[in-house]
Specification:
Layout: E1 9-14, E2 17-24, E3 27-32, E4 37-43, E5 47-48, E6 70-71, H1 83-86, E7 105-111, E8 116-123, H2 126-131, E9 136-144, E10 148-156, E11 162-164, E12 166-173, E13 181-183, E14 189-192, E15 198-201, E16 206-207, E17 212-217, E18 222-225, E19 230-235, E20 239-244, H3 246-250, E21 264-271, E22 277-279, E23 284-293
Antiparallel strand pairs: 1-2, 2-3, 3-4, 4-5, 6-12, 7-8, 8-9, 9-10, 10-23, 11-22, 12-21, 13-16, 13-18, 14-15, 14-17, 17-20, 18-19, 19-23, 20-21
This protein binds 6-O-phosphono-beta-D-tagatofuranose.
Length: 294
């Protein structure tokens, strides 16, 4: 279905999900309305910016394995969050919050010969309030050009303050995880989720020769280098998660072939642990990231 006044955008049905396809002369992108999940961004000369599982399923009620799932209003396992985040959530809930499986609205498309800017929004509802009793307006803006920028703005539209953790859970491609390193995290403190959540210091580049699941504290402008490509990820986030499931965890993941860990990793820009975001009524906060590729 064409989008009114858009030359490049149309809504298409992918199995159970409605997706926005953006076919621009210089790039292609796909955003599922469920979760406002960007699944693909492929540039005419730079190639794929994101990794999407070859067994990704376009199904209602679950995020796809890959692209950029939006983790909100909590990141990760709920019980690993500060109490200021946990205390607002009703009952036992899954990882990464409800935004990534909620149906967002397409609110605007602006396009020209160089870029396409798409905005989607999610507003509190009876359903979200049954899980998390706060009023909010969440807006995600995607700026597609020779690079990718994502801006997640969240506003407290209620009468009570709330505290959230959040992340843009970006899956990146690599030709060989064992020849991949991330520079820029030198001397940062990180929490090792695989070693009793102990705090450690990063020495030298981040390398991958086993499962990695770490929350780095402080600003991380990451340079991802594999034997053919360089990605640069800049963000205003105060936490970043670096994750590769490696061999054993890969076998437990949905939508994930056993060997897929060799060609992907996640650099997730967020506000997690001490960096959770507290919003008073009418306050708002924007989490942003820009991904460039050499
Ligand atoms: O990337 C951090 C993380 O929390 C990992 O521990 C792993 O669980 C990953 O997110 C994927 O989570 P998901 O719920 O999408 O399978």
């Amino acid at each position: 279905m064409p989008i009114i006044n858009s030359q490049y955008c149309r809504i298409v049905q992918q199995d159970e999900l409605e997706c926005l396809h953006i076919k621009h002369p210089h790039f292609f992108a796909e955003i599922c309305l469920q979760g406002a999940q960007l699944t693909r961004f492929t540039h005419e000369s730079k190639g794929d910016f994101l990794w999407l599982s070859p067994t990704a399923e376009y199904q209602l009620g679950q995020s796809l394995r890959g692209g950029v799932p939006i983790c909100w209003p909590w990141f990760g396992v709920l019980d690993k969050n500060p109490n200021s985040v946990i205390s607002s959530v009703n009952g036992k809930q899954g990882s990464h919050g409800f935004a990534r499986t909620s149906m967002w609205q397409l609110t605007s498309v602006h396009e020209d010969t160089k870029q396409v800017v798409v905005e989607l929004s999610l507003t509190s509802s009876a359903h979200t309030q049954s899980i998390w009793p706060h009023l909010f307006e969440l807006t995600c803006r995607f700026i597609f050009a020779d690079e990718l920028t994502i801006e997640l703005n969240n506003k407290n539209t209620g009468k009570n303050a709330f505290t959230i953790s959040q992340a843009l859970h970006t899956y990146l491609p690599t030709t060989d995880i064992q020849k991949t390193s991330i520079n820029g995290a030198e001397n940062l403190v990180y929490v090792d989720a695989l070693d009793n959540w102990q705090e450690k210091s990063q020495h030298g580049p981040i390398l991958f020769n086993s499962e990695v699941d770490r929350i780095y504290k402080g600003k991380l402008n990451a340079n991802l280098v594999d034997n053919t490509t360089q990605f640069h990820l800049k963000s205003n986030s105060l936490s970043s998660v670096i994750w590769n499931p490696w061999i054993d965890k890969s076998k437990t993941l949905s939508q994930f072939p056993d060997k897929a860990y060799l060609n992907m990793l996640c650099i997730e820009n967020g506000n997690i642990l001490e960096d959770v975001v507290h919003l008073e009524p009418n306050e708002s906060h924007t989490l942003s990231m820009t991904l460039t590729k050499d």
